[in-house]
Design brief:
The complex is a heterodimer of chains A (358) and B (560). Chain A has one domain. Chain A is built from 14 helices and three strands. Helices cover 73% and strands 3% of the residues of chain A. With 358 residues, chain A is mostly helical. Chain B folds into two domains: 60 residues, no CATH class; 350 residues, DD-peptidase/beta-lactamase superfamily (Beta-lactamase, 3-Layer(aba) Sandwich), CATH 3.40.710. In chain B, helix 8 packs antiparallel against helix 20. Classes of the chains: A mainly alpha (358), B alpha+beta (560). At the A-B interface, helix 7, helix 10, helix 11, helix 12 and helix 13 of A face helix 1 and helix 2 of B.
């Protein structure tokens, strides 16, 4: 039966392969047939994919035992980044490991869900929400210092979803919401940089200054809109090949899909994403292992949120935030982390199905 | 309790899934909105992003006179742009004026500059096309002028304005693709430009030049037309300016001053026709059987009406006067009496018959209407009844009666033709971009029927005026049979200064002349106006007519 977990890992793997293949097709066009880009992307996705397959076969408890060290390692990396990190675009984000440039803020998107899943599944009846919130606040503060608003928001969302799913009482939800509303104006004034504020203004009215800072949103909307139902055809997107679409291999790559493959292409992509999500949510319903449930929710949330924020930004319903479209955008660390995440999800499902057979 | 907790988890998972579905449908809605509903809009915007077009300006049509002399041409000029530091270039070119940074240079200078390694990489030369008028001030009243603004020709007046559309042609477009970085790639989409029509005018530039020179330094107007087809052979309004001298065009103190060089007196100037109106009233008197060629009056030099004395120009009177003499010597008393017999209604009728008081629709901009007064007009405009005195002064072409020289010329051509005319016009033919020539044909228009014999009486009187009357000193002995009428128009506002015996020059009477020749088979109609009587209008006319008939005799240059 297709609903069986054992089949699900295979289905997800196949869907991921389909999705990644589609991604390469897009990147080939988006990078204007740049072979070095494809090799760079290919090597990282290959590493990620192999890691995913290895992790899939690791028993769940091995991973569980390594949660704390992994979490502490990523916190450590977030700290040393300020000492030896590389600066790019006004923010310190990169850690140069010699052979690879590495973003610790991406790693935290993997280790924080692990940590939260572990904390919140320790005592199912009365999860330690206080400790969970502390575990979130430490990396968040470090990331805001970089500053990397996109990642900070991302881990906030992931954490909220996990804490919510873990059964936090509705009173506490209300308290946290109120606190958030009080803190928000302070964030606006003290934390947000001018460029971030102008992004939000541009999101509200991109036509205000079409050649200045609203240019990106306007051009990406033009790319999407001019794609029409069936698109302008692979390698034929004018917005991409005449360089009107900014960052078309990274943040705005969805514009390439939309212009070259039209509404059909967009729906195809969203369908694959939805099917993957459906399979994983379905697993969360069937399993009784709380750690697996929470971890899967956290990791799939990361995947889905990245996709939605990225697509939402390109089609003009969300402000511009530098979040890539997982496994399609040209992004090293992010794609590897996403694939490792899928490895863990698959491991959860694999372990669970083995248990069922026993 | 554990079961309860698991229940909460599952409920919340469903809620989270629903939120996911909500996001998904929002994204789908926006995609449908952008890609389906707004597709055309964004598709156009995408095209506008990269598809650019370059306008190819068409060549403006040339203007020629009837003998293929160029009146307006296009000229390439070169403008060099200099900065403060280019002192050596200024020196090299011998430019002393340091006010502007743009100078016109000729081709030889450019070659010299380019071959000099000291300058060659610094010079910035732009090529411009400007309008050039080879006949300058002579043809200005007809051709008008225009200026180039951002490679667009802005016509200001004259034929340039009247036939701007004909002359303009159609722009061509060349499409190319330009990417966001400014890199351009050509496309095969080219729409060729269409040159404007070349146009030939009815003007005879030699005659026009003579007409211009005949006025000497006086302010005034000359119009010469062929009554047999309405073609205008010459049209001069003075003073005038040289349209090539754009720099000084508006900076010269006279340009917008009292002399009004941009004002075309021939078609826009309103003047009292004065005595030149008399032949028309004579025709009306004959037509209504109020007078015959035998009718005589006793002229004592004035007419008494309601206790007011209306003087003749000749204070002592002309003695016994018949119609022929009345026109020949321009006897005012005769026409005072005739006017009273006719009454203003019939006077108005004859003037309207001869198309006074309305536009001739000559193909030049800003034509004035003129004014033929009537009882109804006076009531409406001046809120006063019509008096006999009004009739009397209207009978000698003064008072409220106003006409333009072109109207007088048209009315004179009706007299010359004995009852028909053609609309006066300047455009003779056009030649389109495919070298196809199109002639402009005009229809003969008959006015209300008047007896041929009455026309002949008036013609005889006007011929007599030239042989023995007011034109005697000027025209006696001329080899061509001219019929004409002189006129003097008082500037109405100066009656009081006149009585004081001091008449400032700018308020002095105008001198007028209308005429046609040869009187039996007219081929030319001439109207001359000289402002403030700086010279006699009939002298000017004679000068021009002498040239016309001599030249025609010598070589058939003037083709009618």
């Amino acid at each position: 039966m297709l609903l069986q977990s054992k089949d699900a890992t295979g289905v997800i793997t196949k869907l991921l392969i389909l999705y990644i293949a589609f991604g390469f097709l897009i990147l080939y066009s988006a990078s204007e047939k740049s072979v070095p880009t494809l090799i760079g992307q290919g090597s990282k996705i290959a590493i990620g994919f192999i890691l995913m397959l290895i992790i899939k076969h690791l028993p769940m408890r091995y991973i569980r035992d390594f949660v704390e060290p992994l979490y502490l390692l990523s916190i450590f990396m977030l700290i040393i980044i300020f000492l030896v990190g590389t600066t790019g675009k006004g923010a310190t984000r990169w850690l140069n490991l010699g052979f690879i440039k590495f973003q610790p803020s991406e790693l935290i998107k993997l280790t924080l869900p692990l940590m939260l899943a572990k904390i919140l599944s320790e005592n199912i009846r009365k999860p330690n929400f206080f400790l969970a919130i502390i575990a979130v606040l430490i990396p968040m503060a470090l990331i805001l210092l970089q500053p990397d608003l996109g990642t900070a928001l991302m881990i906030t969302f992931i954490s909220c979803i996990m804490i919510y799913a873990a059964g936090i009482s509705s009173i506490l939800i209300k308290i946290i919401t109120c606190l958030g509303m009080v803190i928000a104006p302070f964030m606006w004034i003290f934390v947000l940089r001018d460029y971030q504020k102008s992004r939000i203004f541009n999101f509200i009215n991109p036509e205000l200054d079409p050649h200045g800072s609203g240019y990106n949103i306007l051009q990406s909307k033009i790319a999407v809109g001019s794609g029409g139902f069936s698109g302008q055809g692979w390698l034929n997107g004018t917005q991409i090949h005449l360089k009107f679409l900014p960052e078309h291999s990274t943040d705005f790559i969805f514009g390439v899909i939309a212009q070259e493959f039209g509404l059909l292409g967009c729906i195809t992509l969203l369908t694959i994403i939805t099917l993957i999500a459906f399979k994983i949510i379905q697993f969360c319903f069937t399993t009784n292992e709380r750690f697996s449930q929470l971890l899967c929710i956290g990791l799939i949330s990361h995947f889905l949120l990245s996709a939605f924020i990225n697509v939402g930004m390109v089609i003009g319903i969300l402000p511009v935030v530098g979040i890539p479209l997982s496994l399609i955008s040209y992004a090293g660390t992010h794609n590897i982390i996403i694939l490792i995440g899928f490895g863990m999800i698959l491991s959860c499902m694999y372990t669970d199905s083995n248990k069922l057979i026993k | 309790m554990k079961k309860n907790n698991s229940h909460i988890f599952k409920t919340r998972l469903i809620i989270l899934s629903l939120i996911f579905c909500f996001f998904l449908s929002t994204v789908l809605c926006q995609l449908v909105y952008l890609q389906i509903i707004q597709f055309n809009n964004y598709n156009n915007k995408a095209q506008k992003n990269y598809l650019k077009s370059l306008e190819i300006k068409p060549k403006r049509g040339l203007i020629f006179d009837r003998n293929n002399k160029t009146l307006a041409a296009n000229k390439e000029i070169f403008i060099i742009k200099l900065t403060e530091d280019d002192k050596d270039i200024r020196e090299f070119l011998g430019i002393k004026n340091t006010k502007t940074n743009q100078y016109e240079v000729d081709k030889i200078d450019i070659i010299k500059l380019k071959s000099n390694p000291q300058f060659s990489n610094r010079i910035n030369i732009e090529e411009h096309t400007i309008r050039h008028y080879p006949y300058g001030k002579y043809a200005f009243s007809v051709v008008g002028y225009g200026t180039m603004l951002d490679k667009n020709f802005q016509p200001a007046n004259g034929i340039e304005k009247q036939y701007h559309e004909l002359l303009s042609g159609r722009s061509g477009y060349y499409q190319y693709i330009q990417d966001a970085k400014g890199k351009q790639t050509p496309t095969s989409n080219i729409i060729n430009d269409q040159s404007g029509n070349d146009i030939h005018l009815t003007i005879d530039m030699d005659l026009q030049k003579i007409a211009y020179q005949s006025l000497n330094a006086s302010k005034g107007a000359v119009i010469i037309l062929n009554p047999n087809n309405g073609e205008v052979l010459a049209l001069v309004s003075k003073p005038t300016i040289d349209p090539n001298d754009i720099q000084n065009l508006f900076s010269s103190p006279n340009a917008l001053g009292i002399d009004k060089p941009l004002f075309n007196r021939v078609i826009s100037g309103l003047f009292s026709p004065g005595s030149t109106i008399k032949p028309f009233y004579a025709l009306a008197g004959l037509e209504h059987n109020l007078i015959t060629d035998q009718t005589v009056i006793e002229d004592h030099g004035y007419l008494m009406l309601g206790g007011h004395k209306f003087h003749d120009v000749n204070k002592n009177g002309h003695g016994v006067v018949n119609l022929q003499k009345a026109i020949a010597v321009s006897c005012d008393t005769f026409f005072y009496q005739l006017g009273l017999k006719l009454g203003i209604d019939r006077m108005q009728r004859i003037l309207l018959d001869f198309k006074l008081g309305s536009k001739t629709n000559i193909d030049l901009p800003n034509e004035a209407y003129g004014l033929v007064p009537s009882k109804e007009w006076k009531k409406r405009v001046q809120h006063a009844p019509w008096y006999g005195g009004d009739t009397v002064i209207t009978a000698i072409g003064q008072g409220a009666l106003l006409s333009t020289p072109i109207q007088l010329a048209q009315a004179t051509s009706i007299l010359a033709n004995r009852g028909f005319y053609f609309h006066p016009h300047i455009l003779k033919s056009t030649t389109d971009f495919q070298k196809q020539e199109h002639s402009i044909l005009h229809q003969k228009i008959n006015i209300e029927k008047h007896l041929r014999q009455n026309y002949e009486i008036v013609d005889l009187s006007m011929r007599d005026a030239m042989q023995r009357g007011t034109g005697y000193h000027t025209f006696s002995g001329s080899p061509y049979a001219i019929a004409g009428k002189t006129g003097t128009t008082q500037i109405t506002s100066n009656i009081h200064t006149r009585e004081m015996g001091v008449v400032p020059k700018n308020l002095a009477d105008h001198s007028l002349f209308i005429g046609y020749a040869p009187n039996k088979k007219p081929e030319i109609v001439i109207v001359v106006l000289v402002e403030n009587y700086e010279m006699s209008a009939s002298r000017v006319a004679k000068n021009i007519l002498d040239y016309y008939f001599n030249k025609r005799k010598q070589n058939n240059v003037i083709t009618i």
